[in-house]
Amino acid sequence: MLDVVSWNTIIDGYVKAGLTTSARHLFDRMPARNEVSWSAMIGGYAGSGELDVAQSLFDRMPASVGRNAVTWNSMITGFAKQGLLPLARKFFDDMPERNIVSWNAMISGYALNGKMSSARALFDEMPERDVVSWSSMISGYVQSNHYREALELFNQMQLSRNVRPNEVTMVSLLSSCAHLAALEQGKWIHAYIDRNKMRLDSDDNLGASLVDMYAKCGCVDSAVKVFRNLSHRNVSTWNAMISGLAINGLADESVDLFEEMQRSGAKPNDITFLGVLMACTHGGLVDQGRKYFAMMSYAHGIEPQMKHYGCLVDLLGRAGMLEEAEEAIRSMPMKPDVMILGALLGACRIHRNVPVAERLTVDFLELNSQEAGCHVLLSNIYAAAGRWADASQIRRLLRRRGIKKVPGSSSLELDGNIYEFVSGDRSHQKTPRYMTCWIKRSGNRHLKGVHQPQKKSYWMK
DNA sequence: GTAGGGTTAG
């Protein structure tokens, strides 16, 4: 006869494998249930999104066992993962005794759903914060593209004595630096990682994050150095290096590395192929790109997703093979999205191909998109072909739908400052003379704002 | 034996 702990272990095993029905079967058959049995079962339903069942078990949980914090927290997480924040919040508010996990569950619930001001309000309010609280907030800022806020929060985190950042914290911070192309801050984080003896080749994938950061900051040499010094490589580190070479225009090197990866016996995944396809696109390697695209499913059993088709279409489109690119779009098992149609429309403009562009227009208008870029492109294609009536009709459509073209922007880091540029923007008057020169040399872009680094002393320490 | 944080293209 199994004891209750063994029953619970097996139930948890099923739950972790996503087999809630089997778990429930055991739960119903077990001779005696305790608090942990109920918690595991409720957590299983909540985690798999079966919230109505979770709720009914939650309501039926015997008073003698009593609902514990674990059960409440599972319900909060379950609702939050489904985006049902008011329901999650109701459990959070109603629970008799919240612990730090309850606060963190609610905060990450807000963060996952892009509600950073709500997350921040709770974060500021909570009685004490641990590394998970801080990391949830930092990753929340990263996920909502608020990279400076993420770095700023890390500075504040270092001021609090009783909490130490860990590998998970670093991954989000490196992502921030990568997105901002903030090399100096990225280097500082690298030094921090070394100083705190964090491992680059653990399951936390710090190595991949570092390679990614250096590559996105344009330091291919540093990225390669980190990559080559890793004592153990996993698919993420290979991916980061292959993509890193690709985005820096080193197409042949990227393809070579992909070949090296295959020889090493490492198993590529969907992101690996994305990287190598991108390399082919950048390098104009049409034949190889086709080959790798085909290889995905027949040699590796990876079904191409929209983003892979996107690379293929981009590759063919840039090479002027617009009919074949259109064919690729037609062969997709899924409905083409705005991005992929837009990529091919862009190619149609460059290669002045009106027939393909017109056929794509039909698909495009079906999507009823709010994305201005593609409308503008289409209008430009018509204009380039001298079809002014069609061009202005598209422009009218844009106005009617109330779509505004968002200007493109970019940023760079200089002496620890992050500069942001927005095309056509003239709002910033205090442009230093040397920056003006840079801006002038780099074309029709104007300085928008100069962002001082947060707590400069930290980055320089 | 049950609950909370993660990055990978443009």
TrEMBL record:
The keyword DNA-binding does not apply. Keywords: Repeat. One of its GO terms (biological process) is RNA modification. InterPro entries: E_motif, PPR_At4g14850-like_plant, PPR_rpt, TPR-like_helical_dom_sf. PANTHER family: PENTATRICOPEPTIDE REPEAT-CONTAINING PROTEIN (PTHR47926). This is Uncharacterized protein. One of its GO terms (molecular function) is RNA binding. PPR repeats lie at residues 3-37, 68-98, 99-133, 234-268. Pfam families: E_motif (PF20431), PPR (PF01535), PPR_2 (PF13041).
